[in-house]
Design goal:
Elements (H helix, E strand, L loop, with lengths): L1 H21 L3 H9 L6 E2 L6 E2 L6 H15 L1 H4 L2 H19 L4 H14 L21 H10 L3 H12 L3 H5 L4 H6 L2 H12 L4 H8 L6 H11 L5 E4 L5 E3 L4 H13 L1 H11 L3 H4 L11 H18 L4 H16 L3 H25 L3 H4 L2 H30 L21 H13 L6 H26 L1
Length: 458
């Protein structure tokens, strides 16, 4: 008890000493607090001192208190802020409680909360706090999203951790990854029908690939709020809508919900007999084939779609680092430290971009609806195309239609879902390795689709 008393007394004395050093006389102290060099006058006999403009210390304190309240989050909070904070907490809950993409949902949920802490905003005052306020730390971090810097770095890490052996051994399965991209183009047409501009519709459509980095990359080029898409009657330019936040949140949300959305569609479109199909084990792939694949893949895909070069160039470069065998340190960095850092920055800034006044709009709700529809169509497209393939394949070469669902780009979650659904039908039928082929093909396919959309719309 005595120690606490002496501690408090010591702290008090230190504060008094510091005040005396900074303000040797009372007048100097009040002058410093007043924020100017005005002379402090005493009001005859009155214990309160005033500045030259006549404000008493109590009045100054009252003004300061009002100013504090005016700038506090409690004063500026709206229902929209509270709703978005609730969404952020829900994302974090899903990640922790149900292990839904925690590496994405926790940074994104925290970003949503950070981006929706209310603060005072005015056209003539920039506090440099919010992500859309020039000069703020969040605004600088958001540059990587706005300019499409983060997605290629994510693809570099994905390439460094991906094994293309199954796809190399069974190249026909790349068709399943291509078939699943049908959701992208159908959603694009749907967005056009709902009145979105072609550039906005293209950015919305890519949600069907269930590839968050590709969705961010394409929306940063097409729906960034900067591109001019027309001219008003008075001559003012009309800018494309900034849809990066809603598109990114929708894409990552559906990636996280893969275990919930895909299984019912897979079961609906297949019979039990089809779900029990056993596939031949993939053949062994030589080291030379693994080295040549990223080089051939890079040349082939980027010649078809040069606009996809930032994504596919980094994807195949990362895979070359892995398969070359002589750049292990670089490959390890790309698939661990680098991708972890970029994932944190990407999730945090994308989440923070969902400020209530910009996110809670009719467009955002429509985008979420279209995103759900496109993801279901993409899943169905992969499964149905696998069934069609079986019509032309011999009995021993037939594919289990379940692996068609892995044609979406949610790596490796869709492949895991295929594995789990297959094991529920037959505990000895392991489909994971087979499903990885269309899964990684879907990554390539969605990037090629993004490049094609860019070439037509930008």
């Amino acid at each position: 008890m005595m120690r606490r008393v002496f501690t408090l007394a010591g702290v008090f004395l230190i504060i008094l000493f510091a005040r005396w050093i900074a303000f040797p006389s009372p007048a100097a102290g009040y002058a410093a607090l007043s924020g100017s060099g005005d002379r402090i006058e005493l009001q005859g006999g009155n214990e309160f001192q005033t500045t030259s403009n006549g404000d008493s210390v109590l009045e100054l304190a009252e003004k300061g208190l009002r100013r504090f309240i005016r700038y506090s989050g409690f004063r500026n909070a709206t229902a929209g802020h509270l709703i978005m904070i609730g969404v952020g907490l829900f994302f974090i809950f899903l990640a922790i409680r149900y292990d839904y993409e925690p590496l994405l949902l926790i940074p994104m949920g925290a970003g949503i909360i950070i981006g929706n802490i209310p603060f005072f905003q005015s056209d003539d005052l920039n506090l440099q706090i919010g992500i859309y306020q020039e000069g703020s730390v969040l605004n600088y971090l958001y540059f990587g999203v706005l300019k499409g810097v983060y997605p290629p770095l994510i693809f570099l890490g994905i390439g460094a951790m991906t094994d293309f052996s199954t796809l190399i051994s069974k190249p026909r399965l790349i068709l399943l990854g291509a078939a699943a991209q049908v959701g992208i183009f159908l959603t694009f047409l749907g967005a056009l029908a709902l009145g979105f501009h072609a550039q906005e519709a293209g950015a919305i459509g890519i949600i069907g690939g269930a590839d968050g980095p590709t969705a961010i990359f394409l929306s940063s080029r097409l729906a960034n709020g900067v591109n001019i898409i027309g001219t008003a009657a008075n001559g003012d330019p009309i800018f494309v809508k900034n849809l990066i936040g809603p598109i990114a949140i929708a894409a990552y949300s559906y990636m996280a919900l893969v275990p919930v959305i895909q299984p019912p569609i897979m079961r609906l479109l297949t019979t039990r007999k089809e779900r029990l199909i056993r596939m031949k084990p993939p053949r062994a792939v030589s080291r030379l084939e693994k080295i040549l694949f990223p080089l051939i893949g890079l040349l082939l895909t980027t010649f078809i779609s040069p606009n996809s070069l930032p994504l596919l160039g980094m994807l195949f470069f990362g895979n070359l680092l892995k398969e070359s065998g002589v750049t292990r340190r670089l490959a390890d960095t790309a698939r661990t430290s680098l991708i972890d850092i970029v994932t944190i920055m990407l999730g945090l800034t994308v989440g923070a971009s969902t400020q209530a006044d910009r996110f809670l709009t009719t467009d955002s709700m429509v985008i979420f609806g279209l995103g759900a529809l496109s993801f279901m169509v993409a899943t169905a497209g992969g499964v149905i195309f696998a069934k069609v393939m079986n019509v032309f394949l011999s009995e021993e070469n037939k594919v289990n239609p379940l692996i068609g669902a892995a044609g979406v780009s949610a790596v490796p979650d869709s492949a895991r879902v295929v594995q789990n659904v297959g094991l529920q039908e037959d505990p000895s039928n392991h489909l994971l390795m087979h499903a990885m082929a269309p899964n990684v093909a879907g990554v390539i396919g969605s990037a090629v689709a993004a490049g094609i959309l860019l070439s037509f719309l930008l």
